[in-house]
Specification:
211 residues; mainly alpha; 11 helices; 77% helix
């Protein structure tokens, strides 16, 4: 490798590392201070880099925000999708979804509560992530219907019910699990309850149970 080629490789690696540093720092600040309140100058200061370096990698704050959401969402969606090759059940999909969200719980809760005020592109990234998970759930339910006689329900309503359930507990986590992870505490119960809604006869209907 020539000296020039070596220098180019070093600069490219430094650029990659700086971009990763910006994303990691932005994620932590978004999680701690909020997606709307955090400024690019805050991120530059926390990362110990110049303000201009942030814009060299992300021309606008919105693009940085989209990149962070996409990075987190891709990790979640990929892990949920990894089980598709082994014919995962609907319960597997939901359990994995909860487990993945638990790892990003504080950030995701911010994303949910501030979502209506985020730029359209950032919200679109979130919808795309959820659509990927909805597809996995739909495929799992479709495989189970012939064997278990699961109810045939519109997947958009099924998944929106699931997301609405999760989001309700995340937004109100200070009420349901003060000082701890609400998904760690309530996740298994939410999965159990949701599965009754797709069963041939809902135990929740029979017993009046709910999360």
């Amino acid at each position: 490798m020539s000296v020039n080629s070596s220098n180019v490789a070093v600069r490219q690696e430094q650029k990659r590392q700086t971009r990763e540093l910006i994303l990691r720092t932005a994620y932590l600040l978004f999680e701690d201070r909020g997606l709307l309140a955090t400024k690019t100058s805050d991120i530059a200061e926390a990362a110990h880099i110049s303000h201009g370096s942030v814009f060299a990698h992300f021309p606008t704050r919105d693009q940085l925000l989209e990149a962070v959401i996409e990075d987190v969402g891709r990790n979640i969606a990929t892990r949920v999708q990894e089980g598709s090759g082994r014919k995962q059940t609907a319960r597997d999909v939901l359990t994995t979804h909860v487990k993945c969200l638990t790892e990003y719980e504080a950030f995701y809760a911010r994303l949910v509560s501030e979502g209506p005020f985020l730029p359209a592109a950032a919200r679109r990234v979130l919808v795309e992530i959820q659509s990927a998970i909805a597809t996995q759930l739909d495929e799992a339910l479709s495989r189970e219907r012939p064997k278990k006689g699961a109810r045939v329900l519109p997947i958009d309503l099924v998944f929106n019910t699931w997301i609405g359930l999760l989001h309700h507990y995340l937004v109100n986590r200070d009420l349901f699990a003060p000082g701890q992870s609400v998904l760690s505490k309530m996740g298994p119960r939410l999965v159990d309850y949701f599965m009754t809604l797709t069963s041939p006869t809902s135990r929740a209907d029979e017993k009046g149970e709910g999360p």
